[in-house]
Please model this.
Amino acid sequence: MEILPKTNPPPVYRKLLSDIFIASLLLYVLFFLLEEFFSGFVVDHINLNVLLAVVFISGTVLALTRTKITESTGDMTRVYSVSTTLFISIGVGILGGGIVWLRTVRTLGSLATPISFFITFVITIMIFFLLTEDHRDLQDKDQ
Model:
């Protein structure tokens, strides 16, 4: 039983929402890293919590709507090769682990390194499984 029924917005709205999510997420990561290296450089001018709220809201709405973006074949969403998926997964995992290390090294000291390695491993595995998820099962349930 679904609590929230999945809707299927027009492709134009879905593309716009996807672009908003990607742009706000990239800006948040960029501003976060700038603030981490140059204290007061961003926070003195922009409240990062507002940008984080935009990322969270747009990502949540994007996740709750049905994905029906198809290629010219019309039967599946875009599928990456295994090497591309692995490259993306490792890259995002290293980025996430690096951010965790930057945030915890001051307070935890030498304990921050094993924690960030563990986080890197977990993020890499999760992203890999998300990107290799079989979309055919989802489309069969919709029909």
In short: Residues 78-143 form one domain. Residues 11-37 form the longest helix (27 residues). The helical segments are 11-37, 48-64, 82-108, 112-131, 135-142. The chain has a mean pLDDT of 76.
